[in-house]
Amino acid sequence: MMENAFDVAYRVVEVLFGPDSGVPWWAWVAPLVMIFAKLLGPVVAPEAAGAGGGTGSRSGSGSGKKGKKGKAKKK
Description:
Layout: H1 2-17, H2 25-44
């Protein structure tokens, strides 16, 4: 049972990456590099991926006070 599963998985990998595949080996490199760069980016440069910095458009004033859209006070 397991041997059959390994054979099927080996054939699938051979069709995707093998010498007779329709996709060349270098076409798989860019997506894999982009995926691993996205995953490893915060580990390599944590200060660049840190929370806030005040330069983004979503950062707001940073004071924590609500604007006019906040909840109205009860009198």
